[in-house]
């Protein structure tokens, strides 16, 4: 679970960390073989993930997913 400090907000660090994590997960998926990434976003944060290609999971607006194909298309080099 992430801890939020107001000092670090609005500096783009969340995006940097997310993109790094997605890149690492994409690389690991070649070995481990998992098909997607799930996120359980806090209230009001789902839009942040949607900017990067995550999609809502059914009727749960705070649960989002992105397939490895989506990561390859949207994020991975």
From TrEMBL:
<protein>
    <recommendedName>
        <fullName>GNAT family N-acetyltransferase</fullName>
    </recommendedName>
</protein>
<keyword id="KW-0012">Acyltransferase</keyword>
<dbReference type="GO" id="GO:0016746">
    <property type="term" value="F:acyltransferase activity"/>
</dbReference>
<dbReference type="InterPro" id="IPR016181">
    <property type="entry name" value="Acyl_CoA_acyltransferase"/>
</dbReference>
<keyword id="KW-0808">Transferase</keyword>
<comment type="similarity">
    <text>Belongs to the acetyltransferase family. GNAT subfamily.</text>
</comment>
<keyword id="KW-1277">Toxin-antitoxin system</keyword>
């Amino acid at each position: 679970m992430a801890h939020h400090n107001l000092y670090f907000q609005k500096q783009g660090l969340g995006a940097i960390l997310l993109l790094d994590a997605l890149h690492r997960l994409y690389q690991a998926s070649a070995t481990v073989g998992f098909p997607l990434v799930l996120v359980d976003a806090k209230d009001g944060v789902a839009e942040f993930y949607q900017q990067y290609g995550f999609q809502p999971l059914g009727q749960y607006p705070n649960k989002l997913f992105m397939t490895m194909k989506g990561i390859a298309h949207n994020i991975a080099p």
